[in-house]
Amino acid sequence: MATVLKQSRRFCESIWFSLLLFAYAALIVLVKGEVWGILSFAFIISLLLVVCEDITVTTLPFLLACTFVLKCYNSFNTFIVFAPLGVIPIGAFLFHFIKYRRPYKIGKSFFGIAAVAVAITAGGALFVSPEDYLSGTSLFYIAGLGIGMVATYLLMKSQFVERDTYSLRERLFAIFFIAGLFGVFMIGAHYVENFQALWEAGTINIQWSNNLSTLMMFFLPIPFYYALSKNRLFIFFGFLFYLAIVMTGSRGGLVMGGIELFLCCLFVSVYDKPLRYVTFFLCAAGLVFLAMNIKEFLHVFTASDSLSLISEKEPRVNLMIRAVKDFLSNPLFGRGLGYTGNIDFYSPVKGAANWYHMMPFQIIGSLGLVGVAAYGYQFFGRIRLIFKKPSPSSLTLGLSYAGILLMSMVNPGEFCPIPYELLAVLLFIFLELPNESQPANAFLTVKE
Description:
Number of strands: 0
Helix content: 55-70%
Strand content: under 5%
Number of helices: 22
């Protein structure tokens, strides 16, 4: 029995298991089985939590599920009927952290998370009504972004211990790379499926564009890291990832992803002088081509004939003004995440908050000066951690964080607990890990 368990664990930690998960997720996309796909992936993750001590084996199935479920827009009523089945993953989660418990530890990024939790919890104090503060949606975001992230940090930090057989950072990079390839597959499959409509109308509009772009911006730096550490040809995967972001039709992805792409090229040029010329040529050529054809790109990918990336009639413009007014109405604590007074500009789907859609304005409008102080403290603490001992791997994690930070300037981003802020917290847990004298491999072999 012990031998079977040991071999099962090794298989789950191997590249072959990851490829099987990729193939299964791809099948779910092709047959449009996202609902039963989520249920089956929840079962897979539950099984892994019970069988495997190493919690990183759950990361790839989690990311794959978070990616293909993006196609299930406004599906609260679809999934809520399966809520009783939640006892399975909850039970598996509790079993894992009891059976495989380790001592709790805190690193330097913990204090920023704790400060934000205080600001999130206090948001709207002296103003927000009890009904708004205690609504189901409000409590989800307050708990998820507040005490939930504190708990996530403590639990995950206790689990991520260095292995003798593989590097945790390298494993995370490999998982991100595979998840990025899946994002490319998903956008490619969508274009193939809708090719006739695209051919006839000359345009395509993807509802889940912003969400997929946000995930892809987590993954975008990984091929550039591999171009330095493995093979220079990986650089082309980096541009492929950005092309997939552009093809989603997300204007935020187009612009903010372009900034992240430039930062990735700059990163490569610092560590590989011969590669810098190729990198910057490809980056410059791509951005020049994009600038010359911006109107066509906007028309094809966003179904817009306007040359503008933003219109004065957009809700975001009005929400910027509203955020300032909301801040002035309660400068210390803001209006809180449960505030619903912005519904005249933005009507969210069931289960979503009344976003301002821009992180700086979300902070001042929802959390006031307390939020500004907390997020400022967290931001500068994270920046210090990134550059404390700069190396290719630590800067790669920093670039992934830059991706979600940039996208949060024009979308909810880090104000979504799952998966975006959870991934941001994980990035800094991995940054706190030592990065010396580690094996270069990311996966075990089944025979080991």
